[in-house]
Amino acid sequence: MDLNEIYTELILEQSRNKRNKRELKNPTHVELGHNPSCGDEITLQLRIVNDIIEDISYTGHGCAISQASTSIMIDTVKGLKVKDALNLSNKFIAMVKNEIEDEADLEDLGDAIVFESIKNLPARLKCAVLPWYTLKDIIENDKKEGSFIP
After folding, report:
1. Is residue 8 within 8 Å of 122, Cβ to Cβ?
2. Tens digit of pLDDT at every position of the chain (150 positions)
3. Fewer C-beta within 10 Å: the chain N or C terminus?
4. Does the domain at residues 3-141 carry the CATH identifier 3.90.1010.10?
5. Which string of DSSP letters, residue by residue, matches 107-119?
6. Is 27 exposed, middle or buried (0-12, 13-18, 19+ CB in 10 A)?
7. How far is the C-alpha of 40 from the C-alpha of 92, rounded, in Å?
8. Domain residue ranges in the chain
9. What is an example of a Pfam family matching this protein (predicted)?
10. pLDDT given for residue 3 in this prediction
11. Which residues share a beta bridge with 35?
């Protein structure tokens, strides 16, 4: 199995995974992320307690890449301090923009590193970064209610 097959398999597996796709009880932060160019739409729901992302989930719809990226992001940041999650968001965005040279700098992204080659597919780039930009927006702007009205 070559790297492209592993990448494709992980994307398909994560896009079908419903573990992170659910309504979160008592979220402290909610934000809608929307990609108007393709219609991907996710709503991130976080419960932040004592500066730790205690729980995080999403609802919405989109292509396999946006759904997989969201699920992988959730697995990567759940349980982290808010500032560490923000650092990972910035690192993921820098990775797909080809702004990181040293592969060792990417190790803490975990499975999200599979999206490194998305930079070669500009039309799909927005799909992969949607959840990461949404999370970054929630953290940087303390989006407690967001633009989403339940």
Report:
1. no
2. 544 665 566 666 765 677 899 999 999 999 999 988 888 999 999 999 999 999 999 999 988 889 989 999 999 999 999 999 999 999 999 999 999 878 888 889 988 888 888 888 888 889 899 999 999 999 999 877 654 433
3. N
4. yes
5. GGGGGGGGGGGGG
6. buried
7. 19
8. 3-141
9. NifU_N
10. 47
11. 40
Q: Which residue has the tokens 């040293």?
A: 102
69 token code pair: 């990226």
